[in-house]
Write a structure and sequence with these properties.
By secondary structure, the chain is mainly α. The chain has 6 helices and no strands. The protein is globular, with a radius of gyration of 13 Å. The model has no long low-confidence stretch (mean pLDDT 91).
C-alpha cells in the first residue's frame, strides 16, 4: 500500500469504465502473486508514469510465455491489464491502485 503515493498523485478518486475493468484484474493478479506478478513495477511500486507503464507492458509481452505454465491466471490478468494501463491516465492508474490497496473504498457502481 502506498498512501504517500496516493497523496503525491493528488488523492484521486476517479471511477470510470477503465478503472472498473482494471480493479478486478489487479485483484486477480494479487490472488495469485503477492508481488504484482509481471506488472510489479507498476502495481507494487506505483511507477504509474507513462514510460514505466509502457516498459511494464512490453515486459509482459516479452515474458508472458515463461510464466504461462506456472501462473496461468496471473499471466492472463497481466496480459489483459497491461494494454489497459497504457490507455489509462496517471490519475486513473493512481485511482485504480488506491481502490485495490484499500486507501479509498470501491464504489458499488459507476456514476
Amino acid at each position: 500500500m502506498c498512501v504517500r503515493c496516493h497523496e503525491e498523485a493528488g488523492h484521486p478518486e476517479e471511477w470510470n469504465d477503465k478503472i472498473a475493468r482494471a480493479v478486478p484484474l489487479i485483484q486477480t493478479i494479487y490472488r495469485h502473486h503477492c508481488a504484482g506478478g509481471l506488472l510489479h513495477i507498476v502495481l507494487d511500486d506505483w511507477n504509474i508514469e507513462d514510460s514505466h507503464v509502457q516498459w511494464a507492458a512490453d515486459y509482459v509481452t516479452r515474458e508472458k510465455a515463461k510464466w504461462q505454465d506456472c501462473e496461468p491466471e496471473m499471466t492472463a490478468a497481466c496480459v489483459e491489464l497491461a494494454p489497459l494501463l497504457v490507455e489509462m491516465s496517471e490519475i486513473e492508474r493512481a485511482s485504480a491502485l488506491a481502490y485495490v490497496d484499500g486507501i479509498i473504498p470501491i464504489p458499488d457502481s459507476i456514476p
